Amino acid sequence: MADDKKPPAAFTTYEDDAALGKAAPSLATLKYLQGEPIDFAAKKLTLVLFWAKFAEGDYTVICDVSKLKQKYAENIQVVGVSVDPAEEHVAKFITKLGKAMPEVSVTSLEADFALAFDVDKTVRTAFQKVAAVSSIGPSNIFVVDATGNIVWREQFGQKHRLYQGQLEAQLNHLLNGTPLIQNGPKPKAAEEEEETMDCGDDDMFF
Predict the structure, then answer these.
(1) Rounded distance between C-alpha atoms, residue 44 and residue 17, angstroms
(2) Among candidate residues 197, 201, 203, the one with its CA nearest the CA of residue 8
(3) Local structure of 173: helix, strand or coil
(4) In the chain, how long is the greatest CA-to-CA distance?
(5) Which of 26, 36, 91, 155 has the fewest CB atoms in 10 Å of its CB?
(6) Phi, psi at residue 110, to the nearest 5°?
């Protein structure tokens, strides 16, 4: 997406987003079922992707993030934090990797990054607090810089893929040391819609 084109209001991150500029919560309590533990001090940009096995419609986003990680492998690291209610759901998801899922427009399910279960919802709850939202659902992505601060946050989904958003453009700005895209302050109407965007469909499973 070109820098001058904003996503639909429901998927736009505004410059006064509560999470921006704050220290990212610790990932120490995560239980990793794929890949090595992620360290914010690794001198790379870190993408924290919240996802869920039950949210099959969002598997396209997981594949998009996998491709992005491969493209910027030298500069970014990714951790997928499951919002599923049980660790076994993460393990079952991993068994699907490499398989075609035409029913959700996935030719080969890929997740070429660390996958972890969020024990006691500790990490998810901490990110919710930092972002000042009531809930964080699947396909919400936080970008953390090498100093451990949140520098971008963006919501994606089945109807809003990575190529339709601003994430990759922002990564390029961060890597090149150029100013980030600014979408202005949040309009009143967007504030009223935000809770629906952040909650996704996951609360029905808890």
Answers:
(1) 23
(2) 197
(3) helix
(4) 43
(5) 36
(6) -125, 140
Residue labelled with tokens 């989904």: 157
Q: Decide if 33 contacts 111 (C-beta within 8 A).
A: no
Beta bridge partners, 46, equal 77, 144
Given phi > 0 = left and psi -120 to 50 = alpha, else beta, which region is 149?
Answer: beta
Contact 110, 98 (CB under 8 A): yes
Measured CA to CA, the distance from residue 77 to residue 11 in angstroms comes to: 23
Please give the distance of CA 181 from its chain centroid, rounded to a whole number.
Answer: 18
Sign of the dihedral through C-alpha 147, 148, 149, 155:
positive
Identity of residue 92: K
- Number of other residues whose CB lies within 10 A of the CB of residue 52: 24
Note if the pTM is more than 0.85: yes
Contact 1, 163 (CB under 8 A): yes
Cβ–Cβ under 8 Å, residues 174 and 180:
yes
Q: What does the pLDDT profile of the chain (206 residues) look like in tens digits?
A: 555 578 898 899 999 999 999 999 999 999 999 999 999 988 899 999 999 999 999 999 999 999 999 999 999 999 999 999 999 999 999 999 999 999 999 999 999 999 999 999 999 999 999 999 999 999 999 999 999 999 999 999 988 999 999 999 999 999 999 999 999 999 976 555 555 445 444 443 44
CB atoms within 10 A of CB 106: 17
Among the listed residues 183, 170, 164, 159, the one whose alpha carbon sits nearest the alpha carbon of residue 72: 170
